[in-house]
Amino acid sequence: MHSIIDPIYGRVNLSQLEHLIINTPEMARLRRIQQLGLADLAFPGANHTRFEHSVGTLFIADKMAKALGITGEDLVKVRLAALLHDIGHSAFSHVVESVLKRNPAYQPVMNGGKFESHEKFSRHIISGSFHTKPEIAGCIDNAPFVFDEIAKMATGDIDALPKPYLAQIISNDIDADRIDFLLRDSYHTGVSFGLVDVDQIVGSLNLSGGRLVLGGNASYDEDMAVTAAESMLIARAHHYSAIIHNPMTQGARVMLLHALENALSRHEKAGNDVKSTVSSFFTSYNDGDLLNFIEANGDAGAKKLILNIRNGSICNAVSRFTHKNLNPKTRMALSTIARNGVAKKMFEEELAKRFGKQYGASVLVDLDVASGIPKSTRVRLGDEEGFFYDESALANGLVRAISRQISLCVFSRTEDNSTLSHASSDFLLGIENLSPSLLHFIRNDNYLPIEGLLLIFYSAHRLFSSQAEGRIIMPRLRNIAKIYYLVRELGKVEKLRNLLDYKFHTRYGFPYSDKLFEDIQLLVAMGMVDEDLRYFEKNGRWKQRYEYVLTGDGVEYAELIASGYQNELNIIEDYLILNKHSIPRDTVSVAMGRYKKETKTLHGKS
Predict the structure, then answer these.
(1) I need a surface site. Which of 2, 32, 69, 534 has the fewest CB within 10 A?
(2) Which of 403, 435, 467 is at the close of a domain?
(3) Are residue 260 and residue 187 in the same domain, yes or no?
(4) pLDDT digits over 292-304, tens only?
């Protein structure tokens, strides 16, 4: 046995095989890649590394596996998957992944597919590198097969594994990876996110149908399982607002991003294979190597940005916009743009160009949204199994809080910011004017399933709404499972197949799509749809369900996009008319004065 002393957990014991892997060049590279990128410029203690996090993830995964009674070869695989789960992270991690999403032409092509994320590189390295090392292969039988399985576990490829719960320990809503980075990032930044009760979470884990669930054997144990999970979600929400969306962290990130894009563009124009270079960022470069690459290939402006980063001289945020000062329609547009790398780049560059010319200043813009909202955590309460957010109103609210986190910062690269100090209203107007045209660009190039989903709510609103005595009576669609079913059935229509491109599975006994749940939450978080909580009794237990009604802003936004989807909208409305008696709904009545913007929309089919 070997061991490492960890600042959070103390002694972490390692097997001989793990010790050999830790001393490979692939793992050694992680010692020189910071976990939080450039966040140490805002939080000086945040210089912990991907290597440190990988060892911590192994420690937590070991606790979780043993609590579930996992032993033998399965335990060996879980520990190795945890240790190796970040092996494919690039230097400065998510900044480089952003470059690939913003510039698809830079995405490396290997094994017949494009590599645009660190998970794909991790899987490639784990399955292709370690079994070729004689000292490692000699420690494990059938090494190629075993490392291929470990690669799937490390990257959350649940459907490709005979024991899905092994992958869930590493990659899930509540997993070893998230537990460790929340604890570790809080420890090193000095920011208290909220309590992550590791022992309570680990003690609440159970297996059900080959999947991980939270729960307990008694009423109090059930309550504590839910409480522990809620606390972790609180920490997850605070992680974004406190660290990722800290203006200084964002400023350093956007400086590095622009410098890197400049260096890659010049590198390509010089006749170099930029895809091969990008691959090396994920397989051999560390943070220092990437900075050196930019300084060697970038122009004078890029070199100045890197010099300022090295010296800790970060651009000032002259304007910052969040969900609190963006109207719902603008939030919705920006949320959609932020999830399309090419459009995001166009938006940021165009906004920076406009205001650079207007104010005679050098401007950088960064648009960022939270990702990875919890969507598959299951809990067992009594004899029934359900979704965590269906059992906890607090969890549902936290999912919404994470979904709505958006941060748009305008940074000045000019030392004298006096011309920009009072420009917030101008920036806001520019954002609102620019967003619709970019959304039109995205639609010309890609279908947007979230807009197809909004059109379903809009069609139901037009079909079932009415007016009487100064009030508007609107449909409130109930039972989210029925919405899943409705979207799946509409997605089977040939002409809607691409617009409603959601992948469903039936692991929970009904059609379910992680992406569809996420998009519903985004519509709620962005103010397009209202989510009402209702309680009902079943088998002696009081449960909760959510019902959905289109908001005034949702109607207005749907009207803006409807012209681009007229054929699809007609198909959806025809389907709803044909099946209206099987769509479960209640009604909600609102005074027309509160909903007056929508009076002009009640001309739909009936």
Answers:
(1) 69
(2) 435
(3) no
(4) 999 999 999 999 9
Q: What does pTM read for this prediction?
A: 0.92
CB 461 within 8 A of CB 512: no
Co-location of 458 and 556 in the same domain = yes
In a domain, 219, yes or no: no
For residue 239, being part of any structural domain is answered with no
Identify whether residues 51 and 194 lie together within a single domain: yes
Q: What are phi and psi of 550, to 5 degrees?
A: -70, 135
Q: Give the whole-angstrom CA distance, residue 206 versus residue 275.
A: 44
Distance from the first to the final alpha carbon of the chain: 73
Last residue of a domain, one of 389, 409, 435: 435
What confidence tens digit (pLDDT) does each residue in 507-525 have?
A: 888 899 999 999 999 999 9
All residues at 6 or more sequence positions from 526 whose CB lies less than 8 Å from its CB, including other chains = 323, 328, 331, 332, 335, 403, 404
Q: Report how far residue 428's alpha carbon sits from residue 439's, in angstroms, rounded to the nearest whole number.
A: 17
In a domain, 444, yes or no: no
Asked, for residue 214, whether it belongs to a domain, the answer is no
pLDDT for 555 equals 92
Residues 424, 429, 430, 433: what is their CA dihedral angle, to the nearest 10 degrees? 160
Q: At 421, is the pLDDT very low, low, confident or very high (cuts 50, 70, 90)?
A: low
pLDDT tens by residue, 539-562: 777 777 889 999 999 999 999 899
- At 100-114, the pLDDT tens digits run 999 999 999 988 889
152-209 per-position pLDDT tens digit: 999 999 888 999 999 999 999 899 999 999 999 999 999 987 778 899 999 999 898 8
Q: Residue 43 belongs to a domain with what CATH number? A: 1.10.3210.10
**What pLDDT digit, counting tens, does each position of 89-139 carry?**
999 878 899 999 999 999 999 888 899 999 999 999 999 999 999 999 999
- Answer yes or no: do 149 and 254 share one domain: no
Cα 172 to Cα 63, 511, 540: the distances in Å are 16, 19, 31
Angle at which helices 449-464 and 514-525 cross, to 10°: 60
Q: Domain of residue 543: give its range.
A: 449-601
- 303 lies in the same domain as 349: yes
Dihedral of the CA atoms 466, 467, 468, 471 (nearest 10)? 120
CA–CA gap between residue 229 and residue 213 (Å, rounded): 11
214 forms bridges with which residues in the sheet? Answer: 205, 379
Calpha distance 173→232 (Å, rounded): 10
d(Cα 206, Cα 212) in Å, to the nearest integer? Answer: 6
Say yes or no: 381 and 468 in one domain. Answer: no
Mean pLDDT throughout 572-600?
A: 81
Regarding whether 419 and 470 lie in a shared domain, the answer is no
In contact, 451 and 294? CB cutoff 8 Å: no
Clarify whether residues 193 and 50 are in a common domain. yes
Phi–psi pair at 548, nearest 5 degrees: -125, 135
- If one counts the domains in the chain, the total is 3
